[in-house]
Amino acid sequence: MQIDLRTVSIKPQRNTFDHLARRFGDKPASRYQEGSYDIQATENLHYRPTWDPDQQIYDASITKIVMKDWYALKDPRQYYYNTYTVARARQQETAEANFSFVESRGLADMLPAEMKEIALRVLVPLRHAAWGANMNNSFICGYGYAAIFTQACMFHAMDNLGIAQYLSRLGLLLGDTEGLNEGKQAWLESDVWQPLRRYVEDCLVVRDPFELFVAQNVALDGLLYPLVYGRVVDGFLSANGASSIAMLTQFMNDWFGETQKWIDAVLKTVAAESEDNRALLREWAGKWGARAAAALLPIVQQALEGNADEAVGEEMAAFKARLAKLGIEI
Amino acid sequence: MDMTVAKKKLGLKEKYKLLTRDLGWEPTYHNKDEVFPYVKYEGIKVHDWEKWEDPFRLTMDAYWKYQAEKERKFYAIIDAHAQNNGHLNITDARYLSALKIFLQAISPGEYCAGKGFARMGREFPGVGTQVACQMQAIDEIRHAQTQIHALSNYNKFYNGFHAFADARDRMWYCTLPRSFFDDAMSAGPFEFMIAIGFSFEYVLTNLLFVPFMSGAAYNGDMATVTFGFSAQSDEARHMTLGLECIKFMLEQDPDNLPIVQNWIDKWFWRGFRLLGVVGTMMDYMLPKRVMSWREAFEIYGIENGGALFKDLARYGIRPPKGWDDAGKALDHMTHQFMLALYQYQFGTAFHSWIPSEEDMAWLSKKYPTTFDKYYRPRWEHIKKLKEAGTPYANMGLAKLCQTCQIPTVFTEPDDPTTLCHREVEYKGETYHFCSDGCQHIFEKEPEKYIQGWLPLAAIFQAPLNGDLGAWMEWVSLADGKDNGDFAGSEDQRNFEAWRNQATSNQ
To answer: What's the CA gap between B291 and B50, in Å, rounded?
Structure first.
């Protein structure tokens, strides 16, 4: 049916949905607000989970963190599905261009053999750590509370998978399937990797979604990304004639910078809510942060050797300073 | 200079394997039962997760790329729709009732499914399965959001949309989809996959999406058509996941068969009851109709579903237990549902109405054996009462089915003149059911279903204490605006006035 409509100006009857008007006043809402606030069921839940009858289907008390309103955890990037996928689609275009630049010019074959070997040893096993991060963020989305927080965790989980896949492609490019196999062997058996694998597996049995958020996204990634992608790739490898590796990990660097804004905003809000929350965050970030630093040391030693201790120490200091700014002294 | 060694050329399947399941490993610092604690208690035996066939092979870079293209198009269209008063293109404002029900009842379910699949993406101990579930998780977030965004503009101009988030938790008829999704969310991971991945996505989604979206297209609603069609390629992925999951369970161990069959019986009936709402929208709420509910069910339910169960017969699966009763209900269910909605229209955040002569002629053509015989006379009677100034309203509150939560308004499968009603005594309490199907579901898991939150009982409890006005406020229902007969409603008046303004030179 086609009717020719004159352009008319009609006065809207209302500006937005009731639940948004209650939060933000009677004015038009953004798409981020419409897609994020109050869309998880909160009342009159019908049945207790058969998988754990002590929990509710959506249960804010699974974590020790207490928030008056979990919807306070807004994302400064204002990511809902659309803005998230559009941003990542752009980044993957850049990543694709970088990969094909390196591939088409045979840059991988021009790398100094020793540097290539180090890159394989340091980076390839991390694809398994990224898969662990993916499972952890899928968990936080599944059991965390309030759509505004949990949707961002799902986006993060998919990013973790994307990173695991970029690392796998990097491994294939530099070392073919043997490169991946050796990396997996190292992940499973080499002493260098056991502290990190143990860390990741310990995370897989943490069932407090917010403690897991701290262990994975704050502590581990907060140290791993600056150490590996900053110090080892952009610093050490680039200085030693292997700067094309940095093109293959640009996604990870950009991603870390971007997602840190969200993670910091979440931490800041949770810490500001109560002294109890702050104490929990200090305990968790302190405990997991120290373990993460110790687990990462042998990994970066493969590249930085005698300078690794100092690098880890400096990044730990930077990590503490970052948290201190958010009101979390460790 | 060294010779460059030519790299092995990897096939797509092999490459995808390296980019997904090769990422996983067997944990050694904790035992597997600690890492995946929920995967055994339902009794499903899995011997080899590697046997899982990836239903689709999509890496994240490709996912971002394709999805972003679809997203750009979708928002360009709904922006244009909002700017150009696209809502005035719909056939007439009666159509809006279907959208209001969709937003209150279905969109929250999409979000819930997303959360459920995030859990499955963590709880299954196989990377292939996990990745497929995670992609569905993020897709379902997409569907909830695109639906809210597409319907947001209607909310600015029409009643009944504004309190969908409150309705989801409190409104009596919203407990039908809510209890369906809560049931799936409180089930174990394998049952969840049968409930949502198989029953809802594979068996029922065609019935929801194809006729509903075609209905939207027929009635000039570009916003809804766009979210429907934009979701379709996602749905295709979800359907293959649902089917792969059921085949995987059946192939892993013969002991899984009775468990899976029981879930299929349960979730077919749960789904059939849920889709009764969609059928009612199709038969009664679309000013221009695509096909009747009966025709849609024949194509998408009986033909496609029949072929599917034939395919599954090699595993020993038989058609769901309620299959025959569903067939018998086809000619009655939507009429009984609409009559129920009409008589409780004081308590619905959408409008209902007495079908016009033209509507009734269509209904008797589509339902030749039942409409004129059983339902036309009731509508005629209701019409007479209205003309006499004594419109029919049932101010009593219906008895709800303990399982599906619909008022017990349906008739016996073999006798359309007798209301179907079943009772079960459990631990000294009497529970009521609308059908054998719902009774059987209860009897298999009574401890679960006695927990169901019954919205009509809540009206008589504190703090409402039976006060209808207080109840309306509690469910955010604007009396005289959101509810009641379409004839004479604000939506009807406004739509006509705005459309006249847009199509005339005044």
So the answer is: 44
User: How many distinct structural domains can be found in chain A?
Assistant: 1
CB environment B435-455: b (16+ within 10 A), e (fewer):
bbbbbbbbeebeebbeebbbb
C-alpha pair distances (Å), A321 with each of A327, B112, B157, B320 = 10, 38, 51, 61
For residue A282, tell me if it sits in a domain. Answer: yes
Residue A96 lies in a domain: yes
The answer to whether residue A217 is domain-embedded is yes
Residues 123-152 of A with CB under 8 A from B: 127-128, 130-131, 134-135, 138-139, 141-143, 147, 150-151
Q: How far, CA to CA in Å, does B181 sit from each of A127, A150, B165?
A: 35, 18, 15
Q: Which of B240, B231, B201, B238 is nearest to B213 (CA)?
A: B231
Residue B20 lies in a domain: no
Token pair 């919203």 in the structure block, residue: B174
Q: Which of B477, B79, B144, B96 is nearest to A18 (CA)?
A: B477
Contact across the interface for A46 and B178, Cβ inside 8 Å: yes
State the nearest Cα–Cα gap between B242 and chain A, in angstroms: 19
Find the CATH number of the domain harbouring B176.
Answer: 1.10.620.20
Would B382 be classed as within a structural domain? no
Place of tokens 């029981």: B262
**B96 and B158 Cβ atoms separated by less than 8 Å:** yes
Strand partners, B16: none
Instruction: Pick A50's closest partner by Cβ from B186, B288, B498.
Output: B186
Question: Does residue B178 sit at the A interface (CB-CB below 8 Å)?
Answer: yes
Which residues in chain B touch residue A143, judged by CB atoms under 8 angstroms apart? 119
* B188 interfacial to chain A (CB closer than 8 Å): yes
- pLDDT tens across the length of chain A (330 residues): 455 556 678 999 999 999 999 999 999 999 999 999 999 999 999 999 999 999 999 999 999 999 999 999 999 999 999 999 999 999 999 999 999 999 999 999 999 999 999 999 999 999 999 999 999 999 999 999 999 999 999 999 999 999 999 999 999 999 999 999 999 999 999 999 999 999 999 999 999 999 999 999 999 999 999 999 999 999 999 999 999 999 999 999 999 999 999 999 999 999 999 999 999 999 999 999 999 999 999 999 999 999 999 999 999 999 999 999 999 999
| Number of domains, chain B | 1
Assess if residue B434 is contained within a domain: yes
Question: Residue B160 belongs to what domain range?
Answer: 38-45+56-353+392-503
**What ipTM did this prediction achieve?**
0.96
In a domain, B437, yes or no: yes
All residues at 6 or more sequence positions from A322 whose CB lies less than 8 Å from its CB, including other chains? A222, A264
Q: Which residue has 């990224």 as its token pair?
A: A130
State which residues form the domain around A177.
Answer: 79-325
B141·A172 Cβ contact <8 A: no
Domain assignment present for residue A167? The answer is yes
Model pTM? 0.96
Look at residue B425 and give its three-state secondary structure.
Answer: strand
- Characterize the bridge pairing of strands B411-412 and B422-426: unpaired
Q: Which residue bears the tokens 């990543």?
A: A95
Under DSSP, the state recorded for A192 is T
CA distances to A99, A169, A178, B351 from A175, rounded to whole Å, are 15, 10, 6, 65
Q: What is the dihedral of CA B46, B49, B51, B56, to 10 degrees?
A: 120
Q: Tell me whether residue B285 is exposed, middle or buried, using C-beta atoms within 10 angstroms of its C-beta: 0 to 12, 13 to 18, 19 or more.
A: buried
| CA dist B196 → A77, B177, B238 (Å) | 31, 12, 9
- CATH number of residue A83's parent domain: 1.10.620.20
CA proximity to B186, closest of B38, B82, B292? B38
